[in-house]
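your task:
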Amino acid sequence: MLSSWHPNWVACALGVVGGWIAAWAGWRLSVVLAEVGVSRLHWAWGMRAMAHLRWTAKEENSAALDLIDWMVMLAVMSGVIVLPVFWAMRWSSTARYRLVLGVIDAVVVGAKVRAAPRGRGRSRALRQLDQSCRHVEKRLFKVHSIAGSVSRRSSRLRLIKRHAALVAGAQRVALHQVDVDPEPALTELARLQLVIAENHLYGRQAALLPAELLQGVRPVSRLRNTWRESAHVATAIFAAMTAAVGAARVLPSMGVGEDVRPWLILGAAVLAATLVAGWGRVTRVLELFPA
């Protein structure tokens, strides 16, 4: 059946476990290489840092590690896994066609609704139709990001977002007709979604639907998406503050010089915020600070 890919949670769990094992092996190898490097270079600060690491690795000294030390180590180990996954989610072929794959899912579910017998089976299929249409709507609001052809500061962005809100409203109108006249409404909904996917593939991000289909349509409010975006930014700020506090406590014990500490603390904060909320949101937060 033609459908988009959905994750196999068993495979995902095995992948996470395998990633942690690979990260642990990579960590051990990097420690050995770092020890060899600093000893060859006779780097005093590096030798002190490696001595501190060897001391903390001993079993009798494990009780001396506080919560901040464990959080820093967890962040480093998680970064080895999160960064490749984030890259794949952003730039893989599946990510570039998220809207099209969402439309395919919605059309397939609509066909299931049409074929389902009346009763509990049809009710379940209608709930799946609602869910698939919500997924399409979410991806409509991210169509500029999915296409990858519009920068965040482009003047084209506002027009694309306004059009996406109208298209989402048109899809809701077509979906609501399923409870009025199901058979023609399902056909019209599928036709409308396929037009959206086709125009998206042709690069018409501000003309996903023709103007005659958008007349009298009430655009979907983006207030909910705005609240969600605010939550992401707040989480990024909290992660940056936590990482900065942790780095400020760990770096002195590693023998890092005072002239280098502010830069390392800033790097830890930006890295934590990027891992949590993405680089795009971090850049928007950084723009609030004076140059």
User: Anything to note?
Assistant: The CA atoms of residues 159 and 229 lie 19 Å apart. Residues 9-41 form the longest helix (33 residues). The chain is about 75% helix and 0% strand.
